[in-house]
Amino acid sequence: MAQRPQPIDDAHIAMGIRVIRGQKVLLDVDLAALYGTTTKRLNEQVKRNAARFPEEFMFRLTRDETETLNRSQFATGSQKHRDPRFPPYAFTEHGALMAANLLNSPRAIEVSLYVVRAFIRLRETIAQHKELAAKLDDLERKLQGLAVRHDTLAANTRMQLKQVFEAIRELMSPSEPTKKRAIGFVTDEKKRS
Hints:
This protein is an alpha+beta fold and 193 residues long. It has helices at 10-16, 28-35, 39-48, 63-71, 77-80, 93-103, 106-172, 188-192, and strands spanning 18-20, 23-27, 58-60, 89-91. It has a four-stranded antiparallel sheet.
């Protein structure tokens, strides 16, 4: 019995894309639901056409990956009831397109366009995050440079202000009274006294 097709929407498809083994993939159960077929039928077609699915297009999850997936909050409900002897297949962008060509239904062809757009949007989002991270790193380096210059400037300013305060204090402190010289002619006797 074919599954009821999910609504087609780039954002909905993008939510089903996971990163496994460093690759962005759609699981067979999610892909089958998008294409409006059963997971069993999709996997049968894949097995019949195994030569079209090299490792970079599709791979089977290991038992540990499947258990991790089932424990994660992103696991689909149908994954929980899957026969544990048959771990799911993970399809890369190219594998998802190849599967659409195998199914050759109008729904599969239509959805394949949305799948491509979802993967493209995901790549663009990742690229934007990388650009943003690079800009943030650059800004952090500039800020650290300014902080070093500011610390140097602040130390110089503190030293200069200290000198100014010392000079003002010297001017403010009363000086020792000096003996006033007498005006006019002074004899040697008066100088000695």
